[in-house]
Design brief:
The complex is a heterodimer of chains A (199) and B (270). Chain A has 199 residues and is mainly α. Helices cover 69% and strands 0% of the residues of chain A. Chain A folds into two domains: 112 residues, RNA polymerase sigma factor, region 2, helix turn helix motif (Rna Polymerase Sigma Factor, Chain: A, Orthogonal Bundle); 80 residues, Winged helix-like DNA-binding domain superfamily/Winged helix DNA-binding domain (Arc Repressor Mutant, subunit A, Orthogonal Bundle), CATH 1.10.10. Chain A starts with 18 loop residues before the first helix and ends with a helix. Among the domains of chain B are: 64 residues, no CATH class; 124 residues, no CATH class. In chain B, helix 8 runs antiparallel to helix 9. Chains A and B meet through helix 2, helix 3, helix 6, helix 7 and helix 9 of A and helix 1 and helix 2 of B.
């Protein structure tokens, strides 16, 4: 799958974005981009963080998505929300961020193994939160073992709780393909987690 | 049966809810990036636009047979750039043509606005006319097309013009020059003399109108109409000049004198 393909047409959910904002985005108004950022940065950042598991790369990705907005807005025809459209832009621009975040994690793991970096700083969080953080970190590591297509499928469908149809539209593929990817993604993740005693 | 992966997915979803990062910092970076990109893009546009416009302009001028004349009109500018001496007090683009066409005793800054031949304008109008006249004086058109027997042929003017013309190849100049038998050329040349040498704007207007009547499809129709509007401004007949300038400002003659006409129209509104 080439994730750098032109963005697909999306079909509706939630509410349609303000026509005025879209119009201003098409005219390349800087204020419109920052307005779109204010409205939708949380959704884009959430997806970026869940996909990448790295705040630094996630921020870069968010910035890239909104920087690209004036040029990609021409492909937006109002059949979905602007928020969904922005997440699909993120999907299509995530490849090098995923690689970057994977490399960073690998370096950190190597440093931890050598005792250069402490495994976890002592924190005052409740036990539940610690557990959650550990599970999230493990899953992020497990996601690194997946191909980009499988990773995107898992994050969109399982973590973001989107339907396979919607995820397929965002990625620009068929729903059946998305389901297949999700199936294999879960299979590989179970195998990875099982092999390391997490299941 | 619960999928054991679900708790991992839920943990990941809970861990990253999109609120933990620094949205304001990213917002600032975004605004900065957009501004930088816009600046870079406009810079590239400018870089690309200059050769493109030169090419298009050259093609258009060549197609209309005005290329040699335009090249000739650039000669003084080139001389100035080469360091032959900068004309004083004016931009290099406007002065060479002025020097060639304006008589020594009628420089734009010194020449008073002539009295109207018909009704004299009011005091306020005169002030406006004076400033407009100054403005209009800058927009002197090229007259090198006029036949030699009738052209602005004072030695001071023609010597400059001849040196400019010598830059274009003779073949180009001959090809671009309109046939000397074109009707109304003598009238046009006389109108230019009246406007630029004698500062007799009323006569110039009459002669330009004669030329436009004699040669409605002539080579200098646009120039004649524009010059006529300048003469009208000089005489304070703003209301008559405005429709003529409107035609140029609206692009009826393409880009020819479009900006200048808009500028003059704006000035006449004040």
């Amino acid at each position: 799958m080439d994730l750098d393909l032109p963005l697909p047409q999306l079909s509706g959910e939630e509410c349609t974005p303000g026509e005025d904002l879209v119009l201003r985005l098409r005219q390349g108004e800087v204020s419109a981009v920052t307005e779109a950022y204010d409205l939708h940065h949380v959704a884009v950042r959430r997806f970026a963080l869940r996909l990448l598991g790295d705040e630094g790369h996630a921020e870069d990705m968010v910035q890239e998505v909104f920087l690209a907005l004036p040029s990609v807005i021409a492909t937006f025809r109002g059949e979905s929300t602007l928020r969904t459209f922005l997440v699909s832009v993120a999907v299509h621009r995530c490849r090098h961020h995923v690689r970057g975040s994977m490399r960073r994690r690998a370096h950190l793991a190597a440093a931890e193994a050598q005792g250069v970096v402490p495994i976890g700083s002592p924190c005052a969080d409740p036990e539940q939160e610690v557990t959650r953080k550990q599970l999230a970190a493990v899953l992020t590591q497990a996601l690194d073992a997946l191909s980009l297509e499988h990773r995107v499928a898992f994050v969109l469908c399982e973590v973001e709780q989107r339907t396979s149809r919607e995820a397929a539209q965002m990625v620009g593929t068929r729903e059946s393909t998305m389901r297949t990817r999700l199936h294999f993604a879960k299979k590989k993740l179970r195998a990875w987690l099982g092999a390391r005693g997490h299941l | 049966m619960t999928d054991p992966l679900d708790r991992f997915s839920a943990a990941l979803a809970g861990e990253y809810d999109g609120q933990v990062a620094l949205p304001q910092v990213t917002r600032m970076r975004l605004a900065e990036g957009l501004t930088r990109r816009r600046t870079r893009r406009s810079g590239w546009r400018l870089i690309l636009a200059i050769p493109l416009l030169t090419l298009l302009g050259g093609t258009a001028l060549a197609a209309t047979g005005r290329l040699p004349r335009s090249l000739a009109s650039l000669a003084p500018l080139m001389q100035w750039l080469e360091g032959d001496g900068a004309p004083s007090g004016h931009s290099p683009t406007s002065v060479p043509r002025l020097a060639r066409q304006t008589p020594p005793d009628a420089t734009p800054s010194e020449q008073p606005a002539p009295a109207a031949s018909s009704s004299p304008p009011s005091a306020q109008q005169k002030t406006n006319v004076r400033s407009l006249a100054d403005l209009a004086e800058i927009e002197v058109p090229v007259v090198s097309h006029a036949p030699q027997s009738h052209s602005v042929s004072s030695h001071s003017a023609s010597s400059h013009s001849m040196s400019s013309r010598s830059r274009a190849t003779p073949a180009q100049a001959t090809a671009a020059r309109p046939p000397r038998t074109e009707p109304g050329l003598a009238t046009y040349a006389a109108a230019q003399r009246a406007q630029f040498r004698s500062a007799d704007y009323a006569t110039a207007i009459r002669l330009y109108e004669d030329y436009l009547g004699d040669a409605p499809g002539g080579a200098f129709v646009a120039e004649a109409r524009y010059n006529r509007s300048l003469c009208l401004i000089r005489l304070g007949r703003i209301t008559e000049a405005r429709p003529a300038l409107d035609a140029f400002a609206s692009g009826e003659f393409g880009d020819y004198r479009k900006l200048e006409a808009r500028h003059l129209l704006r000035a006449t509104e004040k």
